[in-house]
Amino acid sequence: MSDLKTRWDIFCTVVDNYGDIGVTWRLARQLVAEHSLTVRLWVDDLRAFERMCPEINIHVAQQWQEGVEVCHWPSEWTQAQAADVVIAAFACQLPPAYMDAMAERQQPPLWMNLDYLSAEDWVVGCHGLPSVKYKSVQKFFFFPGFQPGTGGLLRERGLLERRRQFQQDAAAQRQFLDSLGIVRAPGAQLISLFAYENTGLASWLDVLAADDEPTHLLVPEGRILGDVAHWLGVDSLAVGDLNVRQALTVQVLPFVRQDQYDHLLWCCDFNAVRGEDSFVRAQWAGRPMLWHIYQQDEDIHLDKLDAFLALYTKGLSPAAAEAMNGLWRAWSAGQPIGDHWLNARKHWPELQKNAEVWCLEQGLQADLAAALVRFYLNWI
């Protein structure tokens, strides 16, 4: 779509550390790289952005990274020309001055609210519908999703083939793990842990430590480190720390770039992830996983969790589905998951196959960036 000469503005308010900027940064780069669009990414917190893009200069209000114009979204907005397509990520509120600029255009822009990811049934019915209107500018709902009739998931061109090749290349995996200082013990299962604080963690670590099979647990910097430190009986943990308790080795990793995190997920036998961005990337890894969903008021996040589980476990036997449901629900409720983990391990080959099949099925749908571009083409 190199002849699509349009300018796109993406607005991102960093709410939960890295999830919001993680999604919008992936999307912005893909729109530039695969659709040859001119993209401006407005971010209100460049420090959070810097963690996943170290080249960012947090003191510069306008800069270019990987073909994307990155702009600091100031608290006091200065006038900027409105783009042809405007994406408000995760229902963030656009600056009033920018909304006026949209309305002043001779041809109003396409204005979309890129919403949070959900597997709930109502998403299909609401995707693409008009929302509020500001003067002459109509806003539309745009929902990522897992089912036909939604906007799909972020997935770069050729991602699944690159993943397949990497997972079949033992030397490439060893080289990557070596680059992070990870020395995997022979026969040890490799697990990544990226999660919010969770009181259910200790029971899982107890079981892993007491297991007959060794486990190497890789914990990137993040909010779960405090709970890991408490279980280990240490005051704090830092990057590079390595602790061994019986059959369990715990290693703290630095917060890595997005492409490195993909490779980490691809290397692991099991991935515990959180939020939205790492949740989607773990699905593309094709390995069994555990999702720590972001907690919302009145526990409405549990409806989203159950909706996803209903789809994800559809191809499993009743016993394996029950095991996965128990594990995921207990984890998101902060309950002990040790027994649930042991139950899930009884169905490991089936869970491995299901993860790969799910990944390939989702890969048959249009990716989110392509779906956004198609929506614009249909709109004009």
TrEMBL record:
List the catalytic activities from the record.
dTDP-beta-L-rhamnose + L-arginyl-[protein] = N(omega)-(alpha-L-rhamnosyl)-L-arginyl-[protein] + dTDP + H(+)
Entry keyword annotation includes Transferase:
yes
Which keywords, in A-to-Z order, does the entry hold? Elongation factor, Glycosyltransferase, Protein biosynthesis, Transferase
Top-level taxon of origin: Bacteria
Q: Which InterPro entries match?
A: EarP (IPR016633)
Q: What Gene Ontology terms describe what this protein does at the molecular function level? A: translation elongation factor activity
State the family named in the UniProt similarity comment for this chain: Belongs to the glycosyltransferase 104 family.
Q: What does the UniProt record say this protein does?
A: Protein-arginine rhamnosyltransferase that catalyzes the transfer of a single rhamnose to elongation factor P (EF-P) on 'Lys-32', a modification required for EF-P-dependent rescue of polyproline stalled ribosomes.
Q: Report what the protein is called.
A: Protein-arginine rhamnosyltransferase
- Species this protein is from: Pseudomonas monsensis
Taxonomy of origin reads: Bacteria, Pseudomonadati, Pseudomonadota, Gammaproteobacteria, Pseudomonadales
Q: Which gene encodes it?
A: earP
